[in-house]
Write a structure and sequence with these properties.
- By secondary structure, the chain is an alpha+beta fold.
- Strands 17, 18, 21, 22, 24, 25 and 28 form a seven-stranded mixed β-sheet that branches. It has a four-stranded antiparallel β-sheet with strand order 4-1-8-7. A four-stranded antiparallel β-sheet has the order 3-2-5-6.
- The longest helix has 16 residues.
- It is globular and about 85 Å long.
- The protein starts with 7 loop residues before the first strand and ends in an 11-residue tail after the last helix.
- The N terminus is likely disordered.
Length: 531
Protein backbone atom coordinates (compact mmCIF):
# COMPACT_ATOMS: atom_id res chain seq x y z
CA UNK A 1 0.00 0.00 0.00
CA UNK A 2 1.23 3.48 -0.74
CA UNK A 3 2.72 5.28 2.21
CA UNK A 4 1.79 8.71 3.45
CA UNK A 5 -1.74 8.95 2.06
CA UNK A 6 -4.89 8.88 4.17
CA UNK A 7 -6.09 5.43 5.17
CA UNK A 8 -9.55 4.31 6.16
CA UNK A 9 -10.40 0.98 7.74
CA UNK A 10 -13.28 -0.66 5.91
CA UNK A 11 -15.33 -3.75 6.68
CA UNK A 12 -16.39 -6.14 3.93
CA UNK A 13 -19.31 -8.52 4.44
CA UNK A 14 -19.91 -11.23 1.90
CA UNK A 15 -22.90 -13.18 0.59
CA UNK A 16 -23.31 -15.54 -2.36
CA UNK A 17 -26.38 -16.52 -4.34
CA UNK A 18 -27.17 -19.47 -6.61
CA UNK A 19 -23.88 -21.30 -6.12
CA UNK A 20 -23.32 -24.56 -7.97
CA UNK A 21 -24.08 -27.71 -6.00
CA UNK A 22 -20.98 -29.92 -5.97
CA UNK A 23 -22.08 -32.42 -3.30
CA UNK A 24 -24.01 -35.55 -4.26
CA UNK A 25 -26.12 -36.17 -1.15
CA UNK A 26 -26.30 -32.62 0.19
CA UNK A 27 -25.70 -29.01 -0.82
CA UNK A 28 -22.28 -27.35 -1.07
CA UNK A 29 -20.43 -26.14 2.04
CA UNK A 30 -19.08 -22.80 0.74
CA UNK A 31 -16.28 -20.59 2.01
CA UNK A 32 -14.83 -17.45 0.42
CA UNK A 33 -11.09 -16.84 0.26
CA UNK A 34 -9.79 -13.30 -0.35
CA UNK A 35 -6.52 -12.82 -2.24
CA UNK A 36 -4.68 -9.53 -2.74
CA UNK A 37 -2.47 -8.99 -5.75
CA UNK A 38 1.20 -8.87 -4.83
CA UNK A 39 2.48 -5.29 -5.19
CA UNK A 40 5.81 -6.40 -6.64
CA UNK A 41 4.73 -9.38 -8.72
CA UNK A 42 1.39 -8.87 -10.44
CA UNK A 43 1.05 -12.54 -11.40
CA UNK A 44 1.05 -13.54 -7.71
CA UNK A 45 -2.02 -13.40 -5.47
CA UNK A 46 -1.38 -13.53 -1.71
CA UNK A 47 -4.06 -15.00 0.50
CA UNK A 48 -5.40 -12.40 2.94
CA UNK A 49 -8.31 -13.97 4.79
CA UNK A 50 -11.12 -16.50 4.74
CA UNK A 51 -14.75 -16.47 5.78
CA UNK A 52 -16.20 -19.25 7.85
CA UNK A 53 -17.59 -22.34 6.11
CA UNK A 54 -21.38 -22.54 5.93
CA UNK A 55 -22.73 -26.04 5.62
CA UNK A 56 -25.41 -27.09 3.13
CA UNK A 57 -26.09 -23.72 1.53
CA UNK A 58 -26.14 -22.42 -2.03
CA UNK A 59 -27.09 -18.91 -0.81
CA UNK A 60 -24.74 -18.29 2.13
CA UNK A 61 -24.55 -15.12 4.21
CA UNK A 62 -21.14 -15.11 5.91
CA UNK A 63 -20.86 -13.53 9.35
CA UNK A 64 -17.07 -13.26 9.50
CA UNK A 65 -16.08 -9.74 8.55
CA UNK A 66 -13.04 -8.95 6.41
CA UNK A 67 -11.19 -5.77 7.39
CA UNK A 68 -8.92 -3.90 4.98
CA UNK A 69 -7.10 -0.58 4.89
CA UNK A 70 -8.41 1.59 2.05
CA UNK A 71 -6.31 4.32 0.45
CA UNK A 72 -7.84 6.46 -2.29
CA UNK A 73 -4.55 6.87 -4.16
CA UNK A 74 -3.73 3.15 -4.21
CA UNK A 75 -5.13 0.60 -6.70
CA UNK A 76 -5.80 -2.39 -4.46
CA UNK A 77 -6.61 -5.42 -6.62
CA UNK A 78 -8.60 -8.19 -4.95
CA UNK A 79 -9.76 -11.66 -5.91
CA UNK A 80 -12.61 -13.44 -4.15
CA UNK A 81 -12.65 -17.21 -4.71
CA UNK A 82 -15.41 -19.51 -3.49
CA UNK A 83 -14.73 -23.15 -2.57
CA UNK A 84 -16.88 -26.08 -1.49
CA UNK A 85 -15.12 -27.32 1.66
CA UNK A 86 -15.62 -31.01 2.38
CA UNK A 87 -12.85 -31.69 4.91
CA UNK A 88 -10.95 -30.13 7.80
CA UNK A 89 -7.72 -29.58 5.85
CA UNK A 90 -6.54 -25.98 5.49
CA UNK A 91 -5.29 -26.61 1.96
CA UNK A 92 -7.65 -25.86 -0.91
CA UNK A 93 -6.20 -28.25 -3.49
CA UNK A 94 -8.62 -31.00 -2.49
CA UNK A 95 -11.71 -28.74 -2.41
CA UNK A 96 -14.07 -27.95 -5.27
CA UNK A 97 -13.63 -24.50 -6.84
CA UNK A 98 -17.03 -22.82 -7.30
CA UNK A 99 -15.99 -19.56 -8.96
CA UNK A 100 -14.16 -16.27 -8.48
CA UNK A 101 -14.28 -12.58 -9.26
CA UNK A 102 -11.50 -9.97 -9.55
CA UNK A 103 -12.02 -6.30 -8.74
CA UNK A 104 -10.45 -3.39 -6.88
CA UNK A 105 -11.27 -2.18 -3.39
CA UNK A 106 -12.13 1.17 -4.96
CA UNK A 107 -14.83 -0.47 -7.09
CA UNK A 108 -16.32 -2.09 -3.99
CA UNK A 109 -16.44 1.01 -1.79
CA UNK A 110 -17.83 3.18 -4.61
CA UNK A 111 -20.48 0.66 -5.61
CA UNK A 112 -21.58 -0.98 -2.36
CA UNK A 113 -23.39 -3.32 -2.37
CA UNK A 114 -21.08 -4.63 -5.08
CA UNK A 115 -22.72 -7.49 -6.97
CA UNK A 116 -20.88 -9.47 -9.62
CA UNK A 117 -21.14 -12.94 -11.20
CA UNK A 118 -18.66 -15.59 -10.10
CA UNK A 119 -16.74 -17.05 -13.03
CA UNK A 120 -15.67 -20.68 -13.33
CA UNK A 121 -14.11 -22.01 -16.54
CA UNK A 122 -15.31 -18.93 -18.43
CA UNK A 123 -18.94 -19.33 -17.38
CA UNK A 124 -21.07 -17.67 -14.73
CA UNK A 125 -21.37 -19.80 -11.61
CA UNK A 126 -23.48 -17.86 -9.15
CA UNK A 127 -23.20 -14.36 -7.72
CA UNK A 128 -21.20 -12.68 -4.97
CA UNK A 129 -22.50 -9.66 -3.04
CA UNK A 130 -20.03 -7.48 -1.13
CA UNK A 131 -21.16 -4.81 1.32
CA UNK A 132 -18.50 -2.30 2.35
CA UNK A 133 -18.63 0.20 5.18
CA UNK A 134 -16.12 2.47 6.86
CA UNK A 135 -15.44 1.48 10.44
CA UNK A 136 -16.59 3.93 13.06
CA UNK A 137 -13.88 5.32 15.33
CA UNK A 138 -16.27 4.76 18.23
CA UNK A 139 -16.37 1.18 19.39
CA UNK A 140 -17.83 -0.47 22.46
CA UNK A 141 -18.15 -4.10 23.42
CA UNK A 142 -21.56 -5.59 24.19
CA UNK A 143 -22.12 -8.73 26.25
CA UNK A 144 -25.63 -9.98 25.50
CA UNK A 145 -27.71 -12.86 26.80
CA UNK A 146 -31.09 -13.71 25.24
CA UNK A 147 -33.82 -16.17 26.19
CA UNK A 148 -36.92 -17.24 24.27
CA UNK A 149 -40.40 -18.11 25.49
CA UNK A 150 -43.22 -20.01 23.79
CA UNK A 151 -41.60 -20.38 20.37
CA UNK A 152 -43.53 -22.04 17.56
CA UNK A 153 -43.03 -25.79 17.16
CA UNK A 154 -41.45 -26.45 13.76
CA UNK A 155 -40.27 -30.08 13.88
CA UNK A 156 -42.61 -33.00 13.22
CA UNK A 157 -41.13 -35.39 15.78
CA UNK A 158 -39.71 -32.88 18.23
CA UNK A 159 -39.95 -29.28 19.27
CA UNK A 160 -37.70 -26.70 17.55
CA UNK A 161 -33.92 -26.22 17.39
CA UNK A 162 -33.81 -22.41 17.60
CA UNK A 163 -30.99 -19.99 16.98
CA UNK A 164 -30.87 -16.19 16.57
CA UNK A 165 -29.44 -14.36 13.56
CA UNK A 166 -28.50 -10.66 13.83
CA UNK A 167 -28.29 -8.38 10.78
CA UNK A 168 -27.31 -4.73 10.52
CA UNK A 169 -29.00 -2.30 8.16
CA UNK A 170 -27.05 -1.05 5.15
CA UNK A 171 -27.29 2.41 3.60
CA UNK A 172 -29.69 1.07 0.95
CA UNK A 173 -31.96 -0.30 3.74
CA UNK A 174 -31.07 -3.92 3.01
CA UNK A 175 -29.69 -6.05 5.83
CA UNK A 176 -26.41 -7.97 6.18
CA UNK A 177 -25.96 -10.86 8.62
CA UNK A 178 -23.33 -10.13 11.29
CA UNK A 179 -23.81 -12.81 13.95
CA UNK A 180 -25.46 -16.15 14.67
CA UNK A 181 -25.93 -17.66 18.12
CA UNK A 182 -25.50 -21.30 19.00
CA UNK A 183 -28.33 -23.71 18.16
CA UNK A 184 -30.33 -24.85 21.19
CA UNK A 185 -31.68 -28.34 20.49
CA UNK A 186 -35.29 -29.47 20.98
CA UNK A 187 -36.75 -26.61 23.01
CA UNK A 188 -39.44 -23.93 22.74
CA UNK A 189 -37.95 -22.02 25.68
CA UNK A 190 -34.28 -21.55 24.72
CA UNK A 191 -31.65 -19.81 26.82
CA UNK A 192 -28.71 -18.93 24.61
CA UNK A 193 -25.20 -18.57 26.08
CA UNK A 194 -23.96 -15.03 26.54
CA UNK A 195 -21.99 -13.75 23.57
CA UNK A 196 -19.76 -10.75 22.95
CA UNK A 197 -20.02 -8.48 19.91
CA UNK A 198 -18.63 -5.04 19.08
CA UNK A 199 -20.93 -2.10 18.46
CA UNK A 200 -19.19 -1.60 15.09
CA UNK A 201 -20.09 -5.11 14.02
CA UNK A 202 -23.66 -4.83 15.23
CA UNK A 203 -24.56 -1.46 13.72
CA UNK A 204 -21.35 0.53 13.08
CA UNK A 205 -21.93 2.11 16.53
CA UNK A 206 -24.98 4.01 15.17
CA UNK A 207 -27.54 4.08 17.98
CA UNK A 208 -30.49 4.74 15.65
CA UNK A 209 -29.70 2.18 12.94
CA UNK A 210 -32.08 -0.78 12.80
CA UNK A 211 -30.86 -4.20 13.87
CA UNK A 212 -32.91 -7.09 12.47
CA UNK A 213 -33.11 -10.18 14.66
CA UNK A 214 -34.50 -13.39 13.19
CA UNK A 215 -35.18 -16.61 15.06
CA UNK A 216 -34.82 -19.79 12.99
CA UNK A 217 -35.44 -23.47 13.55
CA UNK A 218 -32.20 -25.18 12.48
CA UNK A 219 -32.39 -28.08 10.02
CA UNK A 220 -29.50 -30.39 9.09
CA UNK A 221 -30.17 -29.97 5.36
CA UNK A 222 -29.67 -26.20 5.55
CA UNK A 223 -33.35 -25.38 4.94
CA UNK A 224 -33.77 -23.50 8.21
CA UNK A 225 -37.35 -22.43 9.01
CA UNK A 226 -38.12 -18.87 10.09
CA UNK A 227 -39.92 -18.81 13.43
CA UNK A 228 -40.21 -15.02 13.63
CA UNK A 229 -38.37 -11.71 13.64
CA UNK A 230 -38.18 -8.29 15.29
CA UNK A 231 -36.11 -5.11 15.03
CA UNK A 232 -34.30 -3.13 17.68
CA UNK A 233 -31.55 -0.50 17.90
CA UNK A 234 -28.35 0.02 19.83
CA UNK A 235 -30.04 3.00 21.45
CA UNK A 236 -32.81 0.77 22.83
CA UNK A 237 -30.29 -1.77 24.10
CA UNK A 238 -28.11 0.97 25.64
CA UNK A 239 -31.10 2.45 27.47
CA UNK A 240 -31.86 -0.97 28.93
CA UNK A 241 -28.23 -1.26 30.03
CA UNK A 242 -28.28 2.10 31.77
CA UNK A 243 -31.61 1.38 33.45
CA UNK A 244 -30.68 -2.22 34.23
CA UNK A 245 -33.98 -3.33 32.69
CA UNK A 246 -34.93 -6.37 30.65
CA UNK A 247 -36.26 -5.88 27.13
CA UNK A 248 -38.82 -8.13 25.47
CA UNK A 249 -39.85 -8.38 21.83
CA UNK A 250 -42.59 -10.34 20.10
CA UNK A 251 -41.47 -12.60 17.27
CA UNK A 252 -43.52 -11.95 14.15
CA UNK A 253 -43.65 -14.36 11.23
CA UNK A 254 -44.73 -12.22 8.21
CA UNK A 255 -46.29 -15.15 6.31
CA UNK A 256 -48.29 -16.34 9.29
CA UNK A 257 -49.44 -12.81 10.07
CA UNK A 258 -50.68 -12.38 6.50
CA UNK A 259 -52.55 -15.70 6.43
CA UNK A 260 -54.07 -15.88 9.94
CA UNK A 261 -56.57 -13.32 11.14
CA UNK A 262 -56.11 -14.06 14.85
CA UNK A 263 -52.33 -14.32 14.69
CA UNK A 264 -50.53 -12.55 17.56
CA UNK A 265 -46.92 -13.77 17.59
CA UNK A 266 -44.65 -16.80 17.31
CA UNK A 267 -43.17 -16.42 20.78
CA UNK A 268 -41.14 -13.79 22.58
CA UNK A 269 -37.44 -12.99 22.92
CA UNK A 270 -36.13 -11.38 26.06
CA UNK A 271 -32.79 -9.66 26.60
CA UNK A 272 -31.96 -11.13 29.98
CA UNK A 273 -28.71 -9.27 30.54
CA UNK A 274 -26.59 -6.67 28.78
CA UNK A 275 -23.23 -5.11 29.61
CA UNK A 276 -21.68 -2.38 27.49
CA UNK A 277 -18.04 -1.45 27.98
CA UNK A 278 -15.44 0.57 26.15
CA UNK A 279 -13.35 -1.36 23.66
CA UNK A 280 -9.63 -0.72 24.04
CA UNK A 281 -7.44 -1.25 20.99
CA UNK A 282 -4.07 -2.91 20.64
CA UNK A 283 -2.51 0.54 20.22
CA UNK A 284 -4.13 1.74 23.46
CA UNK A 285 -2.16 -0.94 25.31
CA UNK A 286 1.09 -0.45 23.37
CA UNK A 287 1.00 3.33 23.80
CA UNK A 288 0.17 2.76 27.45
CA UNK A 289 3.49 0.95 27.90
CA UNK A 290 2.62 -2.71 27.37
CA UNK A 291 5.80 -4.66 26.60
CA UNK A 292 5.94 -7.46 24.02
CA UNK A 293 8.36 -10.21 25.07
CA UNK A 294 9.50 -12.22 22.05
CA UNK A 295 10.98 -15.75 22.28
CA UNK A 296 12.13 -17.99 19.42
CA UNK A 297 12.05 -21.80 19.31
CA UNK A 298 13.76 -23.60 16.39
CA UNK A 299 13.42 -27.23 15.28
CA UNK A 300 16.76 -29.11 15.24
CA UNK A 301 15.38 -32.57 14.41
CA UNK A 302 17.13 -34.81 11.88
CA UNK A 303 14.20 -34.64 9.45
CA UNK A 304 15.52 -31.21 8.41
CA UNK A 305 18.45 -32.92 6.68
CA UNK A 306 22.20 -32.61 7.19
CA UNK A 307 22.99 -28.85 7.38
CA UNK A 308 26.17 -29.45 5.33
CA UNK A 309 24.10 -30.46 2.29
CA UNK A 310 22.26 -28.01 0.03
CA UNK A 311 19.08 -30.11 0.27
CA UNK A 312 18.81 -29.46 4.02
CA UNK A 313 16.28 -26.95 5.33
CA UNK A 314 19.08 -25.76 7.65
CA UNK A 315 21.64 -25.30 4.85
CA UNK A 316 23.42 -21.95 5.19
CA UNK A 317 23.62 -20.48 1.70
CA UNK A 318 25.35 -17.07 1.98
CA UNK A 319 23.55 -15.85 -1.15
CA UNK A 320 20.05 -17.07 -0.32
CA UNK A 321 18.92 -17.41 3.33
CA UNK A 322 17.06 -20.61 4.20
CA UNK A 323 13.37 -20.65 5.19
CA UNK A 324 14.20 -20.60 8.92
CA UNK A 325 16.20 -17.39 8.58
CA UNK A 326 13.70 -15.73 6.24
CA UNK A 327 10.76 -16.45 8.55
CA UNK A 328 12.74 -15.42 11.64
CA UNK A 329 13.77 -12.09 10.15
CA UNK A 330 10.34 -11.29 8.72
CA UNK A 331 8.51 -11.84 12.01
CA UNK A 332 11.28 -10.84 14.41
CA UNK A 333 11.98 -7.48 12.83
CA UNK A 334 8.37 -6.48 13.45
CA UNK A 335 8.27 -7.79 17.03
CA UNK A 336 11.57 -6.21 18.07
CA UNK A 337 10.09 -2.74 17.61
CA UNK A 338 7.79 -3.42 20.58
CA UNK A 339 10.51 -4.76 22.89
CA UNK A 340 12.56 -1.98 24.49
CA UNK A 341 15.70 -3.96 25.45
CA UNK A 342 15.85 -5.92 22.14
CA UNK A 343 17.06 -9.00 24.05
CA UNK A 344 15.38 -12.20 22.85
CA UNK A 345 15.60 -15.69 24.36
CA UNK A 346 16.41 -18.12 21.52
CA UNK A 347 15.89 -21.82 22.14
CA UNK A 348 16.20 -25.03 20.16
CA UNK A 349 14.56 -28.45 20.43
CA UNK A 350 15.16 -31.94 19.04
CA UNK A 351 18.98 -31.87 19.03
CA UNK A 352 21.50 -34.19 20.67
CA UNK A 353 23.94 -32.34 22.91
CA UNK A 354 26.79 -34.22 24.59
CA UNK A 355 25.04 -37.49 23.83
CA UNK A 356 21.65 -36.47 25.25
CA UNK A 357 18.55 -35.27 23.38
CA UNK A 358 17.33 -31.83 24.47
CA UNK A 359 14.01 -30.19 23.70
CA UNK A 360 14.87 -26.92 25.42
CA UNK A 361 18.42 -25.67 24.91
CA UNK A 362 19.87 -22.16 24.48
CA UNK A 363 21.07 -21.45 20.95
CA UNK A 364 23.94 -19.36 22.30
CA UNK A 365 25.10 -22.26 24.49
CA UNK A 366 24.40 -20.38 27.75
CA UNK A 367 21.42 -21.97 29.57
CA UNK A 368 21.44 -19.33 32.33
CA UNK A 369 21.39 -16.45 29.83
CA UNK A 370 19.80 -17.53 26.51
CA UNK A 371 19.24 -13.93 25.38
CA UNK A 372 20.45 -12.67 22.00
CA UNK A 373 20.81 -9.01 21.08
CA UNK A 374 18.39 -8.17 18.27
CA UNK A 375 17.13 -10.47 15.52
CA UNK A 376 20.55 -10.61 13.91
CA UNK A 377 21.87 -11.91 17.23
CA UNK A 378 19.28 -14.70 17.11
CA UNK A 379 20.26 -15.56 13.52
CA UNK A 380 23.96 -15.66 14.49
CA UNK A 381 23.22 -17.92 17.49
CA UNK A 382 21.10 -20.23 15.33
CA UNK A 383 23.81 -20.61 12.71
CA UNK A 384 26.45 -21.18 15.40
CA UNK A 385 24.30 -23.85 17.08
CA UNK A 386 24.12 -25.78 13.81
CA UNK A 387 27.90 -26.23 14.07
CA UNK A 388 27.88 -27.52 17.66
CA UNK A 389 24.81 -29.79 18.04
CA UNK A 390 23.67 -32.98 16.32
CA UNK A 391 20.25 -32.94 14.67
CA UNK A 392 18.20 -35.72 16.20
CA UNK A 393 14.58 -36.01 17.35
CA UNK A 394 11.72 -36.52 18.04
CA UNK A 395 9.73 -33.30 17.41
CA UNK A 396 8.60 -32.38 20.94
CA UNK A 397 7.46 -28.76 21.26
CA UNK A 398 5.67 -28.83 24.62
CA UNK A 399 8.85 -28.14 26.71
CA UNK A 400 9.45 -24.81 24.93
CA UNK A 401 5.78 -23.82 25.29
CA UNK A 402 5.93 -24.57 29.01
CA UNK A 403 9.24 -22.65 29.24
CA UNK A 404 7.65 -19.41 27.99
CA UNK A 405 4.47 -20.12 29.99
CA UNK A 406 6.49 -20.04 33.22
CA UNK A 407 7.66 -16.50 32.48
CA UNK A 408 4.14 -15.38 31.50
CA UNK A 409 2.72 -16.98 34.65
CA UNK A 410 5.33 -15.30 36.83
CA UNK A 411 4.56 -11.88 35.31
CA UNK A 412 0.84 -12.36 35.92
CA UNK A 413 1.42 -13.58 39.49
CA UNK A 414 3.48 -10.55 40.48
CA UNK A 415 0.84 -8.19 39.11
CA UNK A 416 2.98 -7.06 36.18
CA UNK A 417 -0.05 -6.62 33.94
CA UNK A 418 1.59 -4.71 31.09
CA UNK A 419 3.67 -7.60 29.74
CA UNK A 420 2.66 -9.95 26.94
CA UNK A 421 4.67 -12.90 25.64
CA UNK A 422 4.98 -14.13 22.03
CA UNK A 423 6.55 -17.49 21.21
CA UNK A 424 7.60 -18.02 17.60
CA UNK A 425 8.17 -21.71 16.78
CA UNK A 426 9.84 -22.65 13.49
CA UNK A 427 9.49 -26.34 12.64
CA UNK A 428 9.66 -28.69 9.66
CA UNK A 429 7.53 -31.65 10.69
CA UNK A 430 4.60 -33.32 12.36
CA UNK A 431 4.85 -33.23 16.14
CA UNK A 432 5.24 -36.31 18.30
CA UNK A 433 3.90 -35.00 21.65
CA UNK A 434 0.44 -33.87 20.53
CA UNK A 435 -1.37 -34.51 23.82
CA UNK A 436 1.35 -32.72 25.83
CA UNK A 437 1.30 -29.76 23.42
CA UNK A 438 -2.49 -29.47 23.68
CA UNK A 439 -2.24 -29.53 27.46
CA UNK A 440 0.50 -26.87 27.42
CA UNK A 441 -1.49 -24.63 25.05
CA UNK A 442 -4.71 -24.96 27.05
CA UNK A 443 -2.85 -23.94 30.22
CA UNK A 444 -1.13 -21.09 28.35
CA UNK A 445 -4.50 -19.81 27.09
CA UNK A 446 -5.07 -18.45 30.63
CA UNK A 447 -1.83 -16.47 30.46
CA UNK A 448 -0.66 -13.29 28.64
CA UNK A 449 0.77 -15.28 25.75
CA UNK A 450 0.45 -16.03 22.04
CA UNK A 451 2.06 -18.83 20.03
CA UNK A 452 3.00 -18.49 16.37
CA UNK A 453 4.02 -21.64 14.49
CA UNK A 454 5.65 -21.32 11.07
CA UNK A 455 6.00 -24.59 9.17
CA UNK A 456 9.00 -24.81 6.85
CA UNK A 457 9.47 -27.42 4.15
CA UNK A 458 6.94 -29.59 2.37
CA UNK A 459 5.23 -31.45 5.25
CA UNK A 460 1.40 -31.49 5.35
CA UNK A 461 1.35 -30.00 8.90
CA UNK A 462 -2.13 -31.41 9.54
CA UNK A 463 -1.58 -31.48 13.32
CA UNK A 464 -0.58 -27.81 13.28
CA UNK A 465 -3.89 -26.94 11.65
CA UNK A 466 -5.65 -28.69 14.53
CA UNK A 467 -3.68 -26.61 17.05
CA UNK A 468 -4.67 -23.41 15.21
CA UNK A 469 -8.28 -24.24 16.19
CA UNK A 470 -9.97 -21.82 13.76
CA UNK A 471 -13.19 -23.87 13.95
CA UNK A 472 -13.47 -23.64 17.74
CA UNK A 473 -11.41 -23.56 20.92
CA UNK A 474 -8.76 -26.24 21.40
CA UNK A 475 -9.84 -29.25 23.48
CA UNK A 476 -8.16 -32.13 25.28
CA UNK A 477 -10.49 -34.56 27.00
CA UNK A 478 -12.64 -32.34 29.26
CA UNK A 479 -10.28 -29.37 29.15
CA UNK A 480 -11.03 -26.43 26.83
CA UNK A 481 -8.76 -23.49 26.00
CA UNK A 482 -9.92 -20.21 27.48
CA UNK A 483 -9.16 -18.43 24.20
CA UNK A 484 -7.45 -19.04 20.86
CA UNK A 485 -3.73 -18.26 21.19
CA UNK A 486 -2.19 -20.20 18.28
CA UNK A 487 -1.59 -19.03 14.72
CA UNK A 488 -0.14 -21.51 12.22
CA UNK A 489 1.24 -20.49 8.82
CA UNK A 490 2.98 -22.78 6.30
CA UNK A 491 5.98 -20.88 4.94
CA UNK A 492 5.71 -22.40 1.46
CA UNK A 493 2.43 -20.57 0.98
CA UNK A 494 4.24 -17.23 1.19
CA UNK A 495 7.68 -18.25 -0.08
CA UNK A 496 7.38 -15.91 -3.07
CA UNK A 497 5.93 -13.03 -1.02
CA UNK A 498 7.83 -10.14 0.49
CA UNK A 499 8.94 -10.29 4.17
CA UNK A 500 6.33 -7.59 4.79
CA UNK A 501 3.52 -9.80 3.49
CA UNK A 502 4.73 -12.83 5.43
CA UNK A 503 4.97 -10.90 8.70
CA UNK A 504 1.52 -9.44 8.13
CA UNK A 505 -0.06 -12.89 7.83
CA UNK A 506 1.94 -14.46 10.65
CA UNK A 507 1.24 -11.66 13.14
CA UNK A 508 -2.33 -10.89 12.06
CA UNK A 509 -4.02 -12.46 15.09
CA UNK A 510 -1.68 -11.17 17.82
CA UNK A 511 -3.37 -7.76 18.41
CA UNK A 512 -6.76 -9.39 18.96
CA UNK A 513 -5.28 -12.12 21.12
CA UNK A 514 -3.67 -9.47 23.33
CA UNK A 515 -6.81 -7.35 23.66
CA UNK A 516 -8.95 -10.45 24.26
CA UNK A 517 -6.67 -11.45 27.14
CA UNK A 518 -6.67 -7.97 28.67
CA UNK A 519 -10.45 -7.76 28.47
CA UNK A 520 -10.87 -11.24 29.92
CA UNK A 521 -8.71 -10.32 32.91
CA UNK A 522 -10.17 -6.82 33.30
CA UNK A 523 -6.82 -5.12 32.62
CA UNK A 524 -7.03 -1.56 31.32
CA UNK A 525 -4.29 0.23 29.40
CA UNK A 526 -2.26 2.78 31.33
CA UNK A 527 -2.26 6.51 30.61
CA UNK A 528 -5.56 6.42 28.71
CA UNK A 529 -7.69 9.55 29.23
CA UNK A 530 -11.15 8.81 30.54
CA UNK A 531 -14.02 9.68 28.20
Amino acid sequence: MAQGGPRTRVELRLSCRNLKDKDVLSKSDPMVVLYIQNRFKSSTWDENSRTERIKNSLNPDFTKVIELDYAFEDVQKLKFSVYDIDNESSTLEDDDFLGSVECTLGEIVSGSPYTKPLIRKGKESGTIIINAEEQSSIQNTLELKFIGQGLDKKDLFGKSDPYLEFSKQNSDHTFTVVHRTEVMKNTLHPEWPMFTISSNTLCNSDESRNILVRCYDWDADGAHDLIGEFTTTLGEISAASRGKKELEWKLINPKKKEKKKNYTNSGTIRLKSVKISRHYSFLDYIMGGCQMNFTVGIDFTASNGDPRHASSLHYNNPYSPNEYVRALRAVGEVCQDYDTDKLFPALGFGAQISGKVSHEFALNGNPTNPYCLGIQGVVDAYQQALQSVKLYGPTNMSPIIRHVSRFAEAAAARGDQQNYFILLILTDGEITDMAEIKDAIIKASHLPMSIIIVGVGGCSFQMMVELDADEGRLRLNNEVAERDIVQFVPFRKYASSTPFELAKVVLAEVPKQLTDYMKLKGILPRNIPQQ
